[in-house]
TrEMBL record:
Naturally occurring in which organism (per UniProt): Paenarthrobacter histidinolovorans
Keywords: Membrane, Transmembrane, Transmembrane helix
Transmembrane spans: 66-91, 103-125, 132-159, 165-187, 199-222, 326-345
Protein name: Uncharacterized protein
Entry annotated with the keyword Transmembrane: yes
Keyword set includes Membrane: yes
Top-level taxon: Bacteria
Amino acid sequence: MAGVPDHPARDVGWNEPEYEVIGGGLVDDQPRAGQPGPGSEPPRGAVVKDAAGDAWRDARKSFSSWLFWLSCCSGVAFAGGTAAGLVAWALRNGWIENAMPEASFVVMAAFLGLPAAMLGIVWGYRHIHESLLVMLLAGSLRGLALSLLALPVLLVVGISSGGPLALAVAAVVVVVLEVALFGLMGAGSRACFATTVSGVALATVLAAFFCAGNVALTVLLLPGTTDLATASVPVNVERDDAGGITAYECVGSLHQVEVAHTERVAWLAASHPALLLASVGGEFVPPDNNVAWVLSGLQFAADGPSREVPCLGGVSSDGLTPPVPVALSGFAVQAAVAALVAVGGRRLGLRRLRA
């Protein structure tokens, strides 16, 4: 074009116009790798770490209270005193032989489940948090404190009586779980209602059901489990040291027998904290122990009539399905109720906030 000088076609020395970014690196608004953007969720590890920190701070409030430690000591004393009283009563009636220290150790380990459940629901009610994970971890820490107080007592009694020390370790694990699960029930009971009286009432009903009502209901339902079945004749019967049948073969024709299908209601009693801990402890106590039959009684009921009446339906011991540990069903019932109450309480609380 006339009058306008034309630049040579990108000759050497010709540069494109350069522009400087406003801010000059002072403003960093570019996303970085590993940095969560808007609306993204934090990493799962960070969530667990934050929850663990909140749970420790929540549990530390309990650890700094003398009432908390007094409650723990009272719970251990309750288990020990109840065990000694029950064993003395059983000795007087001739139900067990003269082995009071060992029997007291075994029964005390089982009865630790009761104070763990009752204290757990009280602690959970008093220490509520918006996060279920925080409440579960905080309850586990409180349960660990209770179990660490009970462990030296169990070890002293167990060593002095020659009892199975593995039972003390099993009791510690179950106590931690019981305090955590019942803590969720207590916190959920409080969150379900706006008034304190209603929350306390629900927590009391739950504690009463799991610590006494489930066993009473099981006893009431037992007569309805009786039924007629067919069985043949067992031969080549093998027994363990305690006299229990371990293996057999079946011959002959079938005949009718009356049996009790206790497996239909045993799962209900398994949610009782003491019976649950006893069923776990039965795996660590020798069959010839004086009170082994007490610990294995619930598992015996959960296995059904085949333990009492062999050759049901003409099936030998090899054809029976392996028994499922009854403690698993007890934990499942407790966990289901704890989740239902805790999640339901949280939703009801959020609904009240929106109203």
